Every structure is written in C-alpha cells, then in structure tokens.
C-alpha cells in the first residue's frame, strides 16, 4: 500500500464519468517507484461544474490534472495559457499549475504515435486513415497523424459540421488531404474499403457499456486494415474483437494511455516516468 508523507503534492484527473479510468493506480505506482511525494486522485466533475473544478485546482494548489471525456475542449477557456501544440489542436489533456497560472498541454497525439509505431510497427507516410469522432482525442490523433505524413484523413462524426470544421483545420494546418463524412453505416462501409487504418476515438464499447460499438459491421473489416481503438478498458472492445476475428491487426488504447501519461508525469514532476512500471500496473487491472 502507498504511504503518504506529511504533505504530498496532489495531481489528478477531471472528467465525467470516471469509472473506467486506470490513471490513478498507474501514476501512483510511478510516483512510489521513484520515491516522489505525489498522489494522483480522480475528480468526477458533473456537467455544469467544470469552471468550479478548474478554479479548485488553483485554490487547492493542485499541481496538475489530466483532462478526459467530455472536457478536453471545454476546459480551454478556463486556462491561462496553452502550449503551441494544444492551441493548434484545440484540445487539452494535461494541466500544469505553475504558481497559480494554469497551462494546458496535449500529450495524446505523441502518445498515440509512439504506441502505433512501437506496438503495431506502423510507419504512417502516405497512409489513409479513417477516424471515428471529432472530439478532443480525435483532434489530437488527427493532427499527430497529419504531422507524421499520413496521406489522407477522413473524419467521420455524428455531427457533420463538427467533423467538417476539423477537416478544414487539418487542411489549413498542412495536412495532405482531409475530408469529413457522416457517421452512418453505409458511409463507413464505403470509407473502410479505401483506408489503411481505422481509429476509433468514440467511447462506444468503453466499460461499463462493453456491448456497444461504432455503427459498422465486422464484415467490412478486412486485412491489411489496422484497427485501433483508444479505449483501454476493456482491453479488447467489441470492435477490436470483430476486427481480430477478420484477421486484422488490432491496437487498443493501453499503450497510448501509458505514453501520454508518461509525458504528463514529466510535465508535473520534471522527471522521466518509469513507463515499464506504469504498464505493469495496467496489466494487473486489465
């Protein structure tokens, strides 16, 4: 059991709901391993209470927070500064409190790319990618893929206008090609026939709603398609199980969680995170 010293520095995660999160045990194991006087706790923030929650970071001298669904975009107006990457993406997943001034960062994109390269062995140059969703995580992934040389990005979102806005920003930001489509089965079937990678950024299939999945049929998932799901709990979502059954390579969100968390850890503490320890702890829960 982790022993608390007299006045540990507090960090945490804000989002709603948070039943699915494994960030607290992952980070607390890392702090304990390095002998750092930090504690990581979950802060479930109900709708309408985000401004108060962010003010609480200042008032309670909380060292920083991760930000998850549904607040990665909504949190920005309540922060004092954004780093260049977060400003370009338009989403924040990590807050750092520097003497009462809150800085927003986004470590999701680098975490996803590292996972894709190290765990799936993928090089992204020229690849066509279908991204499901247009929220904060989708934005981070899309901009990271564009920066890594992806050839075409297709954004499928329930609200077409939001997806179109992201596609336009990607194009203006230097993406080779980006377009938006509606998140409908017949549209996804057409798109899946012309992409190399599918990335689900939607919470469909996340614990406890493990029987849900995006609106597509498993028969449309065929090798050499690589199917990625940012969900890590459960380890194998209904989407990934369907893709694996069809012979596709699959990648869940576990690696992304570790690598984005390791970068947040460095921003809070100034020290390199013990990523292997963080991964080992996740394996105990998944």
Could you describe the 3D structure shown?
The protein has 286 residues and is α/β, with parallel strands linked by helices. The protein has helices at 23-34, 50-59, 84-89, 108-120, 136-147, 160-172, 185-192, 238-245, 254-269, 275-285; strands spanning 9-15, 38-44, 64-67, 81-82, 94-98, 101-105, 128-132, 152-157, 178-182, 197-200, 226-229, 249-251. The strands form two sheets. A six-stranded mixed sheet has the order 2-1-3-5-6-4, sandwiched between helices. The two termini are 19 Å apart.
Which terms summarize this structure?
286 residues, alpha/beta, Rossmann fold, 2 domains, six-stranded mixed sheet, six-stranded parallel sheet, 38% helix, 20% strand
The CATH C-level name of the largest domain is: Alpha Beta
Helix content: 25-40%
Total number of helical segments? 10
Please give the alpha-carbon distance between the first and last residues: 19 Å
Task: Kindly state the number of beta strands.
Answer: 12
What is the SS-derived class?
alpha/beta
Secondary structure layout plus pairing:
Layout: E1 9-15, H1 23-34, E2 38-44, H2 50-59, E3 64-67, E4 81-82, H3 84-89, E5 94-98, E6 101-105, H4 108-120, E7 128-132, H5 136-147, E8 152-157, H6 160-172, E9 178-182, H7 185-192, E10 197-200, E11 226-229, H8 238-245, E12 249-251, H9 254-269, H10 275-285
Parallel strand pairs: 1-2, 1-3, 4-6, 7-8, 7-10, 8-9, 10-11, 11-12
Antiparallel strand pairs: 3-5, 5-6
Helix pairs in contact: 1-10, 4-5, 4-9, 9-10
